[in-house]
Amino acid sequence: MNHPVRNTPRYSFAVIALILYILLGNFLFFWYMRCQVSDRMEESVNRILRLQEDSLDAFLDAQYETLSANAVLIGQVEEILCEDSLAILKAYRGHAWFDRLLLSDATGKGYASDGQPLDLSSQEYFQKAMAGEKVLSDPIPAADGSTQTIVLAVPIYNDSGDLSGMLGGSFDIARLTSLLFHNAYGDEGFCMILSPDAKVIAAGDIPADGNPFQVAANGQSISFPDGQWEQLQKDLKDGKSGTYLDRHDGAPYYACSTPFGYNDWLLFYVVPLQALLKEYRFIQNAEMVFLLFCLLGLTVFLLYMAYHVWLNNRQLSHRADTDALTGLLNKQAIEKSVNICLKSASPNALHLFCFLDLDGFKKVNDTLGHEFGDQVLKEVAQCLTHSCRNTDMVGRIGGDEFVLFYQNIGSGSHSIELQLQILCGKIANLPILQETSVKIGCSIGLAYSPDAGQDYATLYRNSDHAVYESKKKGKGCISIYH
């Protein structure tokens, strides 16, 4: 027979193993989902940045192509600074994106589309153009400092293929800013173009509550978290893009950067982490539902296991205390129960200990067989049970020996003795024996507590003496120990 105490470690190990398995499974699931979300967010930010880069490149390429086409027309003119060139300039200005067009010869002398004379010889963009490069200048402050302009310039070649001048177009930096994305992620993400020294060349519309760098105006230097700007510069030098999850002033954000391709500028896109997570909020909700489902399942399982252990222990305890044949208390259980009752009862309470021994039962086994004898014992057990109250105890302590314990009988001892006499008559006339020639009876010995004893052993011994007296009287009767 399995003992409940021995089963407990086995159940405990199984439950602990299951809990650890569920916790590990949840941890791995959440970790995997976090990795997938992180990868997708990084990919999403990079995609926005690539779209921004492609958009700017396409726009600038279109402007360069238009400038180059007009530079070819001007290059065919014998003298660059002439009325024909100015006419081309004015005609192009009417359809151009630029605020002003700039034309100069190889010395830097020239004029603008508004007719203003120019000397561009000291300008870096002129010098690069005269070296045969397509140029995008750094921001050039206006004389009054109110605005900044940027110049796109291309070289002019004459019919002989020699450099003969420069054609350029200038525009307010605000126009470049207008090309930057500002409506991604619910207007919470914004894009910036940074110079190699971390100055803002252009910045899209920046939300006041989603600005980790507190960028206020173009030309302002911004500070990065420790080590990030160095990493950005390294990526820029290596021609690589980079995506970073970081904090600035306590706010988590994703920052993505890529070389812009002009003047060592850096295209920098920033979006608050919370804005990115909105797209994946359903995953977080699904994770919570999954976790609650697992916890609910685990709770149900633990409750079931606790109930199963309790029920199993109860069944095992019942089996340990019960006589397998009759279902009555066995010898150990009746002894334990009687002693507990006597110890907890009032010292003046009256109890009756009844020892019943069947007469002639050996003949039943010898004549009719042990299986028939077992059926007789079961019927006797039913008779005993029916003769007792719910608070009384009935047990089988031997082959044909039984104990009945009537607790707290008060003044009802006489009525119980009458019931026992009736019980003797019922046992002598069991229905199962009516069709046989074998007859049985019972001898009963009574011991009253506390006078005849205050524990099971004493009461049993004294009631056994009373049974002996009953058998001496001729069996089938009741004797009381005095």
Number of helices: 12
How would you state the average pLDDT, rounded? 82
Termini separation (Å)?
Answer: 43 Å
Beta-strand content estimate = 15-25%
Q: What structural category do the secondary elements indicate? A: alpha+beta
Shape: rod-shaped
Q: Give the % helix.
A: 40-55%
Low-confidence segments, given as residue ranges, are: 1-6
Radius of gyration: 53 Å
- H/E order of the elements? HHEEEHEEEEHEEHEEEHHHEHHEEHEHE
Oligomer: single chain
Folded structure, characterized:
This protein has 482 residues and is of the alpha+beta class. 46% of the residues lie in helices and 21% in strands. The protein contains 12 helices and 17 strands. The strands form 3 sheets. Strands 1, 2, 3, 4, 5, 6 and 7 form a 7-stranded antiparallel sheet that branches. It has a 5-stranded antiparallel sheet with strand order 9-8-12-11-10, with helices on both faces. A hairpin with a 5-residue loop joins strand 8 (190-194) and strand 9. Helix 1 (4-75) runs antiparallel to helix 7 (281-321) and helix 9 runs antiparallel to helix 10. The protein is rod-shaped.
For this entry, give a set of tags:
single chain; 5-stranded antiparallel beta sheet; 7-stranded antiparallel beta sheet; 482 residues; disordered N terminus; alpha+beta
